[in-house]
Structure formats: structure tokens, C-alpha cells
What we know:
The chain is built from 3 helices and 7 strands; from the N terminus they run E-H-E-E-E-E-E-E-H-H. By secondary structure, it is of the alpha/beta class.
Amino acid sequence: DYSHRRGNRWKKNIITYGVGRYTSDLPVNTVDALIASALDVWAKASPLTFLRSYSHQADIMVEFVGNEHGDSFPFDGPDGTLAHAFGPGEGIGGDVHFDEDEAWTAGFKGFNLYVVAAHEFGHALGLKHSQNPESVMYPTYKNRKTHNLLSSEDIMNINTLYGPRDKR
Ligand SMILES: CC(C)C[C@H](CC(=O)NO)C(=O)N[C@H]1Cc2cn(c3ccccc23)CCCCCCNC1=O
Ligand SMILES: [Ca+2]
Ligand SMILES: [Zn+2]
Ligand SMILES: [Zn+2]
């Protein structure tokens, strides 16, 4: 299980995120937009709000890194493991690492960053893997329709942790 769980949920509804090292596969503004959209998937299904932070003190730090990169979970070059995330908590808690040796795309060649990011942010919020291939938390990558990315199981699980989306 790649969620390296550290505690079960954030104890606040406003969660900050930052982006450190980027991938050279996509323009910076495309990466920023895909990351923001992947977080928004979870914001729309919960009472959570995500705020972009430009300090390195953000709750969720997103980085593109390769091979050995300073935690106990080195990446493995192209293919294999695509990314991993740490469950809610201080420091590395909530952080998301993408394997920089993958071909990251905004489309359907290579690996779609938006789909992978939605999976990893599920872990960063406290979700585990699902055995249901329709769930975004399924442990194997597949090309998914980007519309209505969350399955009903994903929505139920995030609501179990943080409650329903309040009537904004
Ligand atoms: C769900 C995804 C976004 C994140 C997960 C990791 C994860 O759960 N992060 O939170 C992932 O990378 N899964 C591997 C699992 C995997 C599939 N294979 C592997 C061969 C070696 C090592 C791992 C794998 C077979 C060959 C295909 C390799 C390319 C696709 N890789 C995967 O689907
Ligand atoms: Ca890899
Ligand atoms: Zn996972
Ligand atoms: Zn890592």
C-alpha cells in the first residue's frame, strides 16, 4: 500500500498546498492547473478548501522526483510505480511525490497527471486503496474519463472522513 499512512484525517477544512520541483514534460502553468483541478475534485465532494501556498510550509507539498529522493520509498525509473503520497500529518504528512521518470501528460498518451494526482490526493486526505476498478483509489493506473472522476465509493469514503459537502 503506497499511502504510507500517518494519521487518519486533517483536523481542519482549509488545507494549503505547494509545488516544489516540476516535471520538464509539461509547462509549469499546465502542471499548476492539473494539480488545482485534481484537488478541486475532492473539494467538490467534501467541506474541504485548498489554498495555494508559496512557502515550503504547505500542508501538502507536491514534487516531481526520481529514484532515491530522501524518503524511504525510492522510485524505480520509467513505468512501475508512478507516484506515492503520505497520509495526513506534520512534515512529510500529506506530501505527494510523482516519479519524474514517467512521461507525464495532460492527455491520454503516457500517464495522465490529473488522474494520477486525484489518486494521490485521496491518500493525502487519508483514503486507502480500493479493490473496485471504478474507484480512483484503485491501485493500478488506467485511463479514466476525467468527467466525474470520483466513484460513489470514493465520495462515500471522503464524506466518512470529513462529512458531506456543506451547502455553499
Ligand atoms: C494508481 C497509480 C496512479 C499509482 C500507483 C501507486 C500508488 O498507489 N500510489 O499511491 C501505481 O503506480 N501503480 C502501478 C502498479 C503497477 C503496475 N505494474 C507494475 C509493475 C511494477 C511496479 C508497479 C506496477 C504493471 C505494469 C504497468 C506499470 C505502469 C503503471 N503502474 C501502476 O499502475
Ligand atoms: Ca516509475
Ligand atoms: Zn495509491
Ligand atoms: Zn517520495
